[in-house]
């Protein structure tokens, strides 16, 4: 987002050539599209089977902030959020992060584990990201990782700072690309959020030329995971023409990004309304009719000239001023309706899912539950079919040898006992050297206890013996991570049983 009014929580027109022979019918996209990794062909993104797909999603921020995790988990379960995104017709999550989450032992804050997010207890920020990726893939959503900030303190104009040099930036990008290699839920990486002055495009100064830096970083990512899409944002200024931070792609015409792996490049722009900042075009007497020419000049021509796909990675507004309502209506029309154009369209992720973006608000209202139906309604025409769940590879397990040993331990804790009954929680921890794909916990009571209910696991009981098996959503446990389930039983007053965990 353009940051002169940055929120505290996150805070020469081009010649347009017609495109011949494009696939533009909405029949090109169906509910099963999106399988596997993606690649580009001209201005379109195609899935592994060659079907055109359209990114139509939301930004869910928080990993880039000082709590090092997506926001809202203090009040909701992450799975319910992802389920709600899917139910509203969003098919992709842009996930901002800072390099802080790559530091060993970085732990998330502000997560409510009381009856929700129980499988996130004790996990590092990266391990929480693993869980979100795994569940999003299961639900049929794709994820684009967005290097939003070098650290939680704030954004940076350039891709490096004194404390986070270019070498660290690239090393961390490669770490994430490697971590999710083989899991096509993570379909791409946005290399750096909103480069702006003094960043340049095509000036040749390696300390400022974002185009050259994007090539270095993009090729480094592709060297370890050649299947990923590489998202490259624009800059602020080009040849004296200023725009939104990250929103100026005018330099692409003369200085295109060149990657070693073909058909992996997606250009990205950001565009905002007056609730973020004023721009000269908002006061033009011809507004909003003038906006098509503005968008064509800054970034739209890249799509219209069939140079590459264009993804509007951020756009948003509070919708309070009438001018903002006109802007969003015009922008949605410009992005091309799915019913008419299918996936032969601009790609997009709205800013934001979160309601706590101070200068835009979000799809959710302040209770983190209720949908802003007016804002969501503007986006209806450009939403696109979802993708088949499951991804194309195993859930990421983080560090560990895929051929290593699967092993687990379990700890049983009584959380309450009122004599007539009791509640208990069992925590399963991956103590092996590879991803734990499923688990089983067994124990024997010493008395007459019976399980009356169980959540986040299924169970059988025969006499004093109990066997609990993971639920569908928490069987995958990364190395060093944990999952939990709870149970109710009767009577109370019994001793804590000895529990055994087995990888299955």
Q: What is the CATH topology classification name of the largest domain? A: TIM Barrel
* Biggest β-sheet description: 8 strands, parallel, barrel
List the secondary-structure elements in sequence, H or E: EEEEHEHEHEHEEEEHEHHEHEEEEEEEE
* CATH architecture name of the largest domain: Alpha-Beta Barrel
By secondary-structure content and strand pairing, the structural class works out as alpha/beta
Please identify which CATH superfamily of the largest domain we are dealing with.
Answer: Glycosidases
Percent range of helical residues: 10-25%
The count of strands amounts to: 21
How many helical elements?
8
Mean pLDDT: 90
Span of the ends, CA to CA: 45 Å
Radius of gyration: 24 Å
Spatial order of strands in the largest sheet: 4-5-6-7-8-11-12-13
In percent terms, what proportion of residues is strand?
15-25%
Give start-end ranges of low-pLDDT stretches: 2-31, 394-402
The CATH class of the largest domain is identified as: Alpha Beta
Total tally of structural domains: 2
Shape: elongated
Domain CBM2: 401-504
Signal peptide: 1-27
InterPro entries: CBD2, CBM2/CBM3_carb-bd_dom_sf, CBM2_carb-bd_dom_sf, GH, Glyco_hydro_5, Glyco_hydro_5_CS
Catalytic activity: Endohydrolysis of (1->4)-beta-D-glucosidic linkages in cellulose, lichenin and cereal beta-D-glucans
What does it look like?
The protein has 504 residues and is an alpha/beta fold. The protein folds into two domains: 39-379, TIM Barrel; 408-503, Immunoglobulin-like, CATH 2.60.40. Helix content is 18%, strand content 23%. It contains eight helices and 21 strands. It has an eight-stranded parallel beta barrel with strand order 4-5-6-7-8-11-12-13. Strands 14-15-20-17 form a four-stranded antiparallel β-sheet, with no helix packed on it. Helix 1 (78-87) runs parallel beside helix 2. The model is unreliable at 2-31 and 394-402 (pLDDT under 50).
């Amino acid at each position: 987002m353009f940051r002169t009014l940055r929120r505290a929580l996150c805070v020469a027109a081009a010649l347009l050539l017609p495109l011949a022979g494009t696939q533009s019918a909405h029949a090109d996209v169906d509910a099963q599209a999106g399988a596997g990794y993606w690649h580009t062909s001209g201005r379109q993104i195609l899935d592994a089977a060659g079907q055109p797909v359209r990114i139509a999603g939301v930004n869910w921020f928080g990993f880039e902030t000082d709590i090092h995790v997506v926001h809202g988990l203090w009040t909701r379960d992450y799975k319910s959020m992802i389920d709600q995104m899917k139910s509203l017709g969003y098919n992709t999550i842009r996930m901002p992060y800072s390099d802080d989450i790559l530091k060993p032992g970085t732990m998330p804050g502000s997560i409510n584990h009381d009856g929700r997010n129980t499988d996130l207890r004790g996990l590092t920020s990266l391990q929480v990201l693993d869980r979100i990726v795994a569940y999003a893939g299961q639900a049929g959503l794709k994820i684009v990782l967005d290097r939003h900030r070098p650290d939680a303190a704030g954004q940076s104009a350039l891709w490096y700072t004194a404390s986070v040099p270019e070498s660290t930036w690239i090393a961390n990008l490669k770490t994430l690309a490697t971590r999710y290699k083989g899991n096509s839920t993570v379909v791409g990486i946005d290399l750096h959020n909103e480069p702006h002055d003094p960043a340049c495009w095509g000036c040749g100064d390696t300390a400022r030329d974002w185009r050259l830096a994007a090539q270095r970083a993009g090729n480094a990512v592709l060297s370890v995971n050649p299947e990923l899409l590489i998202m490259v944002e624009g800059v602020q200024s080009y040849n004296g023409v200023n725009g939104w931070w990250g929103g100026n792609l005018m330099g692409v015409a003369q200085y295109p990004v060149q990657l070693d792996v073909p058909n992996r490049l997606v250009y990205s722009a950001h565009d905002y309304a007056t609730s973020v900042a004023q721009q000269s075009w908002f006061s033009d007497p011809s507004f909003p009719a003038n906006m098509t020419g503005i968008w064509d000049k800054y970034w739209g021509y890249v799509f219209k000239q069939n140079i590459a796909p264009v993804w509007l990675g951020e756009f948003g507004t509070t919708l309070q001023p009438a001018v903002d309502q006109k802007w969003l209506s015009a922008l949605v029309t410009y992005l091309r309706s799915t019913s008419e154009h299918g996936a032969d369209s601009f790609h997009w992720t709205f800013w934001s899912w979160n309601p706590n973006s101070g200068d835009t608000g979000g799809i959710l209202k302040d209770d983190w539950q209720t949908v802003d139906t007016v804002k969501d309604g503007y986006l209806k025409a450009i939403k696109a079919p979802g993708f088949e769940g499951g991804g194309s590879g195993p859930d990421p397990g983080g560090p560990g040898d895929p051929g290593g040993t699967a092993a687990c331990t379990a700890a049983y804790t009584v959380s309450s006992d009122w004599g007539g009954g009791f509640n208990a929680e069992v925590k399963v921890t991956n103590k092996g050297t590879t991803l734990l794909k499923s688990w089983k916990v067994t124990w024997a009571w010493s008395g007459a206890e019976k399980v009356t209910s169980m959540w986040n696991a299924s169970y059988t009981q025969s006499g004093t013996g109990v066997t609990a098996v993971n639920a569908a959503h928490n069987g995958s446990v990364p190395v060093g991570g944990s999952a939990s389930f709870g149970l109710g039983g009767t009577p109370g007053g019994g001793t804590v049983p000895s529990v055994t965990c087995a990888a299955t």
